[in-house]
Amino acid sequence: MTATLTWQPFRLTLRFPFAAAHGEISSREGLLVRLHLPSGPSGLGEASPLPSFGGGSAEEAAAALAELARQGRGLSVEQMWQADWDLRGFAPGSAAAARCGLETALADLMARRARLPLFSWLARQSGRDVPPPPREIPVNAVIDATGPAAAAEQARDLACGGFTTFKVKITAGVDAAFARIEAVRGVLGPGPVLRIDANGAWASEEAALAALERLAALDLALCEQPLAPGAGLERLAAVARLSPIPVAVDEGCRSLTDLEAIIRSRAAGTVVLKPMVTGLREALRMLHLAGESGLATIVTTTFDSGVGTALAAHMAGLLPDPMPACGLATLQHVTRDIVSGVPPLTRGLMTITGEPGLGLVVDELALSEVAIGPVREAAL
C-alpha cells in the first residue's frame, strides 16, 4: 500500500491548572496523527500520553508511532486495523497512546470511506446494535474548586448550563471533602446525580470505608478509585463489598487483562474506560467484555485535544441506553483546540451527528501556533 503516516507534536495550555490525586495538569502534550492515502479521505488520530496517569511521554509515543509504521509497512488499511502490534520496550502509556493514534486514524479513514460516523462504523465492526445518528451522549460536569464556597459556585454555574450529573474531585482529607461535597449538594438539591473521584487517595481499605461511610450521608451515586491500583484488587473488592457508595475502577482499568481481573475479584460494578490509555481496539474489547459481564462503563477523555475528545464521544456512542453520563466535558478547559467539528456539548448532552468518521477538520493555523516540533512522516 502506498500511504504516509505523519505525526506532529503539540502542547495545549489549560485555562487553569487541574488538580487530581495523581498530579496537577497545566498543559497537555501530544501528537496529531494523520494517515494519508494517494486518493480518497485521510484519517485523523491523537497520541497523547498522560504521564501522571499512565506514564510515558509524547516524545516516546512518537518513537512508538515510528515503530508501528515500520511494522505496518506493506499492509493494507484493513490489515493494519487487524494487526497485533508489538511495542515491547516502550512505556505502557506511550505504547497505548501510539496505538490509539494509529488505530483512530485507521478507523476514521475507513469510516469516512464507508460514509458512516465513527461510532456507527465501530458498531458494525464489533457486531453491536446502536441507534442511528444523531446520538446524544449524557456528559458529567467536573467540580475541582478546592474550597466549599468556590465548589458551590462552580456547581451552580454548571447546573445553570444544563448539567444534571456532577463529579467532585477529592483528596484524602475527609473533613475537607465532606465540606466541599455538602456545599455542592446544598446548591444542587436532591435531584442531580453526584459522584466523587478519589483517584486512589486513601491508603487502606479501613481509611476508605471510614470516609465513604461518612460521605454517604450526602447521597452519592458513585466513588471512582477509592484505593490506588497498587493496593490490589482484593482490598478494593473488600471496600466495594462493604461500601455504602457504589465503587468504580478508573486508574486500575487500563487493559483487557486488568478488566478480567476486576471481574474475577468482583472489585467494582462500574469501570471507567479511557481510549487514550488503552488504545482504540483494546477499548472495544474491554467494552464488549464489560457488557457481557454486567458491568456499567463510563467513557472519559484524558484532557485530550478535540481529536481524542471526539474519539471518546464516539466510543460512548456504543454504550447501551440508558447510558451513564460520561467524562467528555474537558475540551472547555483548553485555551485553544487544533480541530473543528467536535460534537457540540449543550446543556449536558454531547450530540454526534451523521458526519462521516470523526467529522473533524484540522485547524492548520491553530496547529501551527501550538506545535512544538516539526511534522515527522513514515511511508507505509
Can you walk me through this structure?
The protein has helices at 51-54, 58-72, 77-82, 92-114, 118-126, 148-160, 174-188, 205-215, 233-242, 256-265, 275-278, 280-292, 306-316, 364-370; strands spanning 4-20, 23-36, 43-47, 135-138, 141-143, 165-169, 193-197, 222-224, 247-249, 270-273, 296-299, 339-340, 345-346, 349-352, 361-362, 376-379. With 380 residues, the protein is α/β, with parallel strands linked by helices. It folds into two domains: 4-115 and 364-379, Enolase-like, domain 1; 126-361, Enolase-like C-terminal domain (TIM Barrel). The strands form four sheets. Strands 5-6-7-8-9-10-11 form a seven-stranded parallel beta sheet. It is globular and about 60 Å long.
Number of domains: 2
How many strands? 16
Distance between the termini: 6 Å
So, CATH architecture of the largest domain?
A: Alpha-Beta Barrel
Strand and helix map with partners:
Elements: E1 4-20, E2 23-36, E3 43-47, H1 51-54, H2 58-72, H3 77-82, H4 92-114, H5 118-126, E4 135-138, E5 141-143, H6 148-160, E6 165-169, H7 174-188, E7 193-197, H8 205-215, E8 222-224, H9 233-242, E9 247-249, H10 256-265, E10 270-273, H11 275-278, H12 280-292, E11 296-299, H13 306-316, E12 339-340, E13 345-346, E14 349-352, E15 361-362, H14 364-370, E16 376-379
Parallel strand pairs: 5-6, 6-7, 7-8, 8-9, 9-10, 10-11
Antiparallel strand pairs: 1-2, 1-16, 2-3, 4-14, 12-15, 13-14
Helix pairs in contact: 2-4, 4-5, 5-13, 6-7, 8-9, 10-12
